[in-house]
UniProtKB/TrEMBL annotation:
<dbReference type="GO" id="GO:0006817">
    <property type="term" value="P:phosphate ion transport"/>
</dbReference>
<dbReference type="InterPro" id="IPR035906">
    <property type="entry name" value="MetI-like_sf"/>
</dbReference>
<comment type="function">
    <text>Part of the binding-protein-dependent transport system for phosphate; probably responsible for the translocation of the substrate across the membrane.</text>
</comment>
<keyword id="KW-1133">Transmembrane helix</keyword>
<feature type="transmembrane region" description="Helical">
    <location>
        <begin position="175"/>
        <end position="198"/>
    </location>
</feature>
<protein>
    <recommendedName>
        <fullName>Phosphate transport system permease protein</fullName>
    </recommendedName>
</protein>
<dbReference type="Pfam" id="PF00528">
    <property type="entry name" value="BPD_transp_1"/>
</dbReference>
<keyword id="KW-1003">Cell membrane</keyword>
<dbReference type="InterPro" id="IPR051124">
    <property type="entry name" value="Phosphate_Transport_Permease"/>
</dbReference>
<feature type="transmembrane region" description="Helical">
    <location>
        <begin position="75"/>
        <end position="108"/>
    </location>
</feature>
<feature type="domain" description="ABC transmembrane type-1">
    <location>
        <begin position="83"/>
        <end position="311"/>
    </location>
</feature>
<keyword id="KW-0812">Transmembrane</keyword>
<feature type="compositionally biased region" description="Low complexity">
    <location>
        <begin position="10"/>
        <end position="21"/>
    </location>
</feature>
<keyword id="KW-0472">Membrane</keyword>
<keyword id="KW-0592">Phosphate transport</keyword>
<feature type="transmembrane region" description="Helical">
    <location>
        <begin position="293"/>
        <end position="315"/>
    </location>
</feature>
<feature type="transmembrane region" description="Helical">
    <location>
        <begin position="31"/>
        <end position="55"/>
    </location>
</feature>
Length: 325
């Protein structure tokens, strides 16, 4: 006699019955599922359409004779200075904004009294609603004047560093001011993302660290920061994306297109950025000049896509992190 046919034994029921497996979905579930899939496909279609448009419009400039491109040096030497300015300004803006965003998020979530934290969080979120042109005007007419004397001091005392080689600008409208403006602009979105990540840190992990004798800073270093690491990267990459594509603020501060590559941050001889160059040059462009500007836009599109893909790869590597491993 087989074990399954012994008297008194019952066959355990299956976890999923045939009736449940074959039950039709509700109308609301089908609508929601279809809308979600459609939205995802629509994003891919729009992204592919933008890429196709940029490639099609930039194609004449990519294969044009070097003498026909503005400046007469070819498409590569036309785009390289503004690409360098874009990467330079965005990188240093991220360097300035990163410690500020993390410090503000930590202060709001772990140090400030509840009322002050709520007010400060509201003010930080409100900064994201300020138009970029307002930041540009503030940088050009307020921050630029305030940096004239400090940049002269930097030239006199730290001129051996390529970033402060000088000569210092007498107007203050330099790449340094553009970097500071971009740092302020990306601060709200980075701080908001990081703050929400810190608030999601398991309370038991924090209390366990304190119970084992850790100070508040040691608790933050061992429990809070590791838990929010992927969100820190995500928030900063969102800010970096805005810095790479910012147009009006940089255009107002620099107010000129210069075909130069320089690490000097305090002189007037600064490279422009791709977005600012397009904004300042497009109204007077025609023919092949338009295709050249669109080609530079294609490069900016590719750089932004690579940055976001890199950030997504970093986040995916830590998506299973729970704070306890």
């Amino acid at each position: 006699m087989s074990p399954s046919s012994r008297k008194g034994e019952t066959v355990p029921p299956t976890t999923t019955s045939t009736r449940t497996r074959g039950a039709p979905q509700r109308l609301g579930d089908r609508v929601f599922s279809g809308a979600s899939v459609g939205a995802g496909v629509l994003i891919l279609v729009i992204l592919a359409g933008v890429a196709a448009f940029l490639v099609a419009e930039a194609w004449p400039a990519l294969w044009a004779d070097s003498s026909d491109i503005d400046g007469g040096d070819g498409i590569v030497l036309y785009i390289w200075p503004v690409l360098f300015g874009t990467l330079l300004s965005a990188f240093f803006a991220l360097v300035v904004a990163t410690p500020l965003a993390i410090a503000i998020a930590l202060f709001i979530t772990h140090f400030a009294p509840r009322r002050i934290a709520s007010l400060l969080g509201y003010v930080i979120d409100l900064l994201a609603a300020v138009p970029s042109i307002i930041f540009g005007l503030w940088g050009a007419f307020v921050l630029a004047d305030l940096t004239v004397e400090p940049t002269r001091w930097l030239e006199e005392n730290l001129g051996f560093i390529p970033f402060f080689d000088g000569p210092a600008s007498t107007t203050g409208r330099t790449m340094l001011v553009a970097i500071l403006v971009l740092a302020v602009m990306i601060l709200p979105i980075a701080t908001a993302v990081i703050r929400e990540a810190f608030l999601q840190t398991p309370r038991l992990h924090e209390e366990a660290s304190l119970a084992l004798g850790a100070t508040r800073w040691e608790m933050i270093r061992m429990a809070v920061l590791p838990f929010g690491r992927s969100s820190i990267v995500g928030g900063l990459m969102l800010g970096l994306g805005r810095a790479l594509g910012e147009t009006m603020a940089v255009a107002i501060v620099l107010s000129a297109n210069r075909n130069t590559v320089s690490f000097d941050l305090i002189s007037s001889d600064n490279p422009s950025t791709i977005a600012a160059n397009i904004a300042l040059s497009f109204p007077e462009a025609s023919g092949l000049s338009v295709n050249t500007l669109i080609a530079s836009g294609l490069v900016l599109f590719a750089v932004t896509l690579v940055v976001n893909m890199g950030a997504r790869a970093v986040i995916n590597r830590r998506r299973d992190f729970s704070g306890a491993n």
